[in-house]
Amino acid sequence: MNGFKSAIELLQPKLRQIFERLPPADIDSINEIRLRLGRHVSVSTVKGNLYITETGELTEDSSFAIITEPSDIEYTFKNAFSYSLHSYSKELCMGYITVGSGNRVGICGTAVTNASDLRSVETIKYVSSINIRIAREKRGFAEKLINMCVSSKPSGVLIIGAPATGKTTLLRDTTRLLSSRFKISLIDEQNEISATHRDTAQNDIGELTDVFVGYPKHIGISTAVRVMSPDVIVVDEIGSEEELQALEFALHSGVTLITAVHSESLEEAKKKRIVKALISENAFQYAAVLGRNYEYEIIKIG
After folding, report:
1. How is the beta sheet containing 184-188 ordered, strand by strand?
2. What is the pLDDT of residue 47?
3. In terms of C-beta distances under 8 Å and separation of at least 24 residues, what long-range contacts does 225-229 make, across chains too?
4. Residues of the chain under the 70 pLDDT cut
5. pLDDT tens across 235-259, in order?
6. pTM of the entire structure?
7. Which of 103, 150, 202, 208 has the highest Cβ tally under 10 A?
8. Would you list the DSSP string of 107-175?
């Protein structure tokens, strides 16, 4: 099941049928489906935020758009969590869950905090917004990157982009292509890259890839180095001090790093301490900077 079809399976039948009326070109442009209680159903596309009408058309004018009803929120919320909130208490606390085809469902509502630690969220109640982020496999997306950055051995690559520009898609296809020749350890904390269900990756991540699903990134990185002897570690959305220490451990162990960071440009990314530190240690030879239309520029670092 592709990402869009899997996403609309989470919606109430009436709303799902409206999305099914969209023409293929519109479907391909949608990155996110957003439900906000009492407000219009919207989608995020490569052209910006649009609304959907009862007749299955995307429009900038909300006048004829569908209103999100309480039952829409309740149905999608329970469906995403397989009607078993207790089984997914960790995901509920984090505010998101990865579902079929690697789609991520984010929820927004009222946090219930831990009485002994007000910084810790125990659960969420009164869900008011849901965001279904659609994951897509885009075969061949990383070919330009692979052709430039891989010869007899892979180069370290930093993938840079704003949200919804294709960082995860590029990481996924890079993993797939590299793993025909090199041993890859994929640290997939949020299960967005591999979309692993139980013990099987639903997305194509290649022959020589070992997946660490749900591990905190710093633990997954360190464990991979110790037990899987990877040639390359692939990890998404780095940012913490613990992750920096784990990535430095991997780098000093002779492992090539391919990772991603939220930024608009290489110059902005270099302002982040973790990126600055890794660049100073020659962890990356190239940066791939993504634009808004699933295009990217490759920049040589150093």
Report:
1. 209-213, 184-188, 232-235, 256-262, 157-161, 286-290, 296-300
2. 80
3. 225/185, 225/249, 225/250, 225/253, 225/255, 228/183, 228/185, 229/183
4. 1, 117-119, 302
5. 999 999 999 999 999 999 999 999 9
6. 0.80
7. 103
8. EEEEEEEETTEEEEEEEEEEEEEEEEEPP---TTTTHHHHHHHBSSSBPPEEEEE-TTSSHHHHHHHHH
